[in-house]
Each structure stands twice: as structure tokens, then as C-alpha cells.
Amino acid sequence: MLKPEDTYLHKGQRKELVKKLQEKGIKNQAVLDAINTLPRHFFFDSALLSHAYQDKAFPIGEGQTISQPYTVAFQTELLDIRPGEKVLEIGTGSGYQAGILYLLGAKVHTIEYNSNLYERTKKFLPKIGIKVKHYCGDGSQGLPEQAPFDKILVTAGAPVVPTSLLKQLDVGGRLVIPVGDRKTQKMLRLTKQTEKKILKETFDNFSFVPLLGQEGWK
Ligand code: SAM
């Protein structure tokens, strides 16, 4: 597949999207810049291309979705990524969120449960210059062989906070994860202040596809 085109029209649409995200309360300039830089339409099926800059989630095949830009911005802002940090993303999907983390200077490890999405995204991201490490498997249990991580981001809705993920977080590290029922989840941010002390903060409601697996939905 050839590298898709990024026209002035797309660039203008991205600027408008960034403006909308600012109006909705996103403040972190590095996050807004990354969204302004990464062409979201590269991650879309040709039939849906004209929708790429709407602030909505869209199907990416395999019954899965690319998250709404506001959700990507909100989760990324909560993570507060510093360049060089080691980040685990659970739920690679289209690779868009992994691309945003990469543009923020993170060393990204991303794991996807669905083998077709894993194969597709692993082939696609290098073609648009995004270098992250891809894994296929059950991310509800984290990635113990690569732990500890400075930040962990879960992009699917979990029934509970997986204890494996807290274990694999470095002291000072943060886990951002939507937790709730299959329809609606509260966004949580858990900061590992010491080996034994976790600060838990609760934010707005979101609606994610379910996190499957051992420490997800059965
Ligand atoms: N971050 C993605 C993006 O930028 O396109 C969107 C993620 S989509 C909302 C959720 C993804 O999580 C799906 O691709 C789904 O297959 C994946 N998923 C669900 N359970 C998982 C698990 N236990 N481990 C890894 N990935 C999982």
C-alpha cells in the first residue's frame, strides 16, 4: 500500500478538530500538536475517509473501533507523557493512539488481542514513519517481560482494574483505564506513589468496546 496523501483540506480539517478539542477542555499543547500532526484519515477505510475528522469513533473492522479524538486526547492528557518514557498501550486497534504516543516521544509497546488487527497495524505503522513495538496477546495481563512501565494506557473498557497492570507500573508511574460495565465506564487514573500506595482519581463517563481476556470480560 502506498503512503496516503495528506492534503491542505485534511490539514485544515485537523486544525478545526483541534479547535473543537480545545473548546471541550483539552489543554495540553503537546497533545493538541500531536493530533494536529498525525493524519487521522490514514487510519480509515476508504469508504469512511470523509468522516475522519469528525469527533467520533468509527469502525476499523473485526467489530472494533478507532476511538473518538476527544477520548484519545483526554486519555493522553491524563497520562502526561514525557519524552523517553516507556509506555504500554493495551488495545492497538488501528494504531492511531500508538502514533500519538510515539509523536509525544514515548517508547511505545502496544498489544492487541485480535490477530488480524495486530498483523494489519504492525505492517501499516512503519509505512507512515511510526516506530513502536507490537505484540499480539491478552493485554489485560499486561506485558510482564517488558515491565516496568512509566505509563500504561488501556483503550478498552475493563470490569475491574487488572492487578497485573498495577504490578507492572514503575513507582511514580500512571495507569489510565476506563472501568465499569459493558456499556459505560468511568475513566480512572491510578498513580503508583510508592510500592504500596496507589492514588486513584475518577473522571467522566466514556463508552469503550470491552477489554477481553483473563483480567477483562470473559
Ligand atoms: N487504541 C485503538 C486505536 O487507536 O485505534 C482503539 C482501541 S479499540 C477502542 C479497543 C481495542 O482493544 C480493540 O482493537 C480490541 O481488539 C482490543 N482489545 C480488547 N481486549 C484486549 C486485550 N485483552 N488485550 C489487547 N487488546 C484488547
CATH homologous superfamily label: Vaccinia Virus protein VP39
Output the strand order for the largest sheet. 5-4-3-6-7-8-9
What is the highest CATH level, the class? Alpha Beta
Low-confidence stretches: none
Bound molecules: S-adenosylmethionine
- Would you identify the CATH architecture? 3-Layer(aba) Sandwich
InterPro entries: PCMT, SAM-dependent_MTases_sf
Family: Belongs to the methyltransferase superfamily. L-isoaspartyl/D-aspartyl protein methyltransferase family.
Protein name: Protein-L-isoaspartate O-methyltransferase
Catalytic activity: [protein]-L-isoaspartate + S-adenosyl-L-methionine = [protein]-L-isoaspartate alpha-methyl ester + S-adenosyl-L-homocysteine
At a glance:
The chain is an alpha/beta fold. The chain has a single domain, classed as Rossmann fold (3-Layer(aba) Sandwich), CATH 3.40.50.150. The protein has six helices and nine strands.
What do you see in this structure?
This protein has 218 residues and is an alpha/beta fold. The chain has 6 helices and 9 strands; from the N terminus they run ααββαβαβαββαβββ. Strands 5-4-3-6-7-8-9 form a 7-stranded mixed sheet. It has a two-stranded antiparallel sheet with strand order 1-2. β3, α4 and β4 form a beta-alpha-beta unit. α1 packs antiparallel against α2. The radius of gyration is 16 Å and the shape is globular. It binds S-adenosylmethionine. S-adenosylmethionine binds next to β2, α4 and β4.
Distinctive features:
single chain, 218 residues, alpha/beta, Rossmann fold, seven-stranded mixed sheet, two-stranded antiparallel ribbon, 9 strands, 28% helix, globular, binds S-adenosylmethionine
